[in-house]
């Protein structure tokens, strides 16, 4: 199923990177991170995200294959754009998001579950995620708690459990761990911890597959 795109521009381009090309690309990524840590940073206001960027590169290094999705007709974000070009850019990014979503739907059709998330904290066979209780994602989990997660180096299935408001007393210990793990961005304004719909989602894993340096490992989380 082809994804929709604004004015049928189809701005997406997929780049599959493996082997030596992947290693060369990651060297470039690390050089960029090193630049951001020094005085000649391209994005000097984003230094608080450097630790997360390093973690992302480590995950990409463990993956046998990386798929990059880029805006093939995108404008230079650092340059000037007319109001019309700015609108086109937004529409193109939305179209690319739809194409990525179709990749996830195709994976689901093949029996490969996925959950579109950002950073997650892992502990004792569970992923912990800060999310919003009123989101469509959580409504789906409330209806059917059997979920799947996917990252650069793993896929896994489990049961989604809403632990409730991030700030409630029972979640204090886990909330402190999440604050420490996500210290680079947790208070950047995207989370409203006064809103009781800001919750902790626990995904209790049952089984999964891990890829590391070209080797596949099947894991049964129910077997302690």
Concise description?
This protein has helices at 19-37, 50-62, 83-109, 136-143, 172-181, and strands spanning 12-18, 65-71, 121-123, 126-132, 146-150, 154-165, 198-212, 215-220. The protein has 224 residues and is α+β, with helices and mostly antiparallel strands.
Question: Your description of this structure?
Answer:
This is Nitroreductase family protein. Pfam families: Nitroreductase. With about 220 residues, the protein is of the alpha+beta class. The chain folds into two domains: about 5-110, NADH Oxidase, CATH 3.40.109.10; about 120-220, Pnp Oxidase, Chain A. It has helices at about 20-35, 50-60, 85-110, 135-145, 170-180, and strands at about 10-20, 65-70, 120-125, 125-130, 145-150, 155-165, 200-210, 215-220. Strands 3, 4, 5, 6, 7 and 8 form a six-stranded antiparallel sheet that branches. A two-stranded antiparallel sheet has the order 1-2. Helix 1 (about 20-35) packs antiparallel against helix 2 (about 50-60). The longest helix has 27 residues, at about 85-110. The radius of gyration is 19 Å and the shape is globular. The termini are far apart. The model has no long low-confidence stretch (mean pLDDT about 80).
């Amino acid at each position: 199923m082809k994804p929709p795109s604004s004015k049928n521009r189809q701005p997406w381009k997929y780049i599959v990177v493996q082997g030596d090309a992947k290693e060369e690309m990651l060297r470039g990524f690390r050089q960029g991170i090193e630049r951001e840590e020094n005085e000649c940073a391209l994005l000097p206001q984003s230094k608080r995200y450097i630790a997360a960027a390093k973690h992302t590169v480590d995950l990409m290094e463990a993956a046998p294959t990386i798929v990059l999705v880029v805006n093939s007709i995108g404008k230079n974000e650092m340059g000037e754009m007319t109001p019309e070009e700015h609108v086109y850019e937004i529409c193109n990014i939305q179209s690319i998001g739809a194409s990525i979503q179709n990749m996830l739907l195709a994976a689901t059709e093949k029996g490969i579950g996925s959950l579109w998330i950002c950073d997650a904290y892992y502990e004792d066979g569970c992923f912990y995620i800060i999310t919003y209780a009123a989101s469509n994602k959580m409504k789906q989990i409330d209806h059917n708690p059997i979920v799947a997660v996917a990252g650069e180096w793993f896929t896994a299935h489990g049961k989604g459990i809403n632990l409730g408001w991030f700030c409630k007393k029972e979640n204090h210990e886990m909330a402190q761990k999440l604050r420490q793990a996500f210290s680079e961005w947790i208070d950047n304004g995207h989370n409203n911890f006064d809103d009781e719909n800001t919750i902790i989602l626990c995904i209790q894993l049952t089984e999964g597959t891990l890829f590391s340096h070209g080797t596949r490992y099947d894991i049964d989380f129910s077997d302690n």
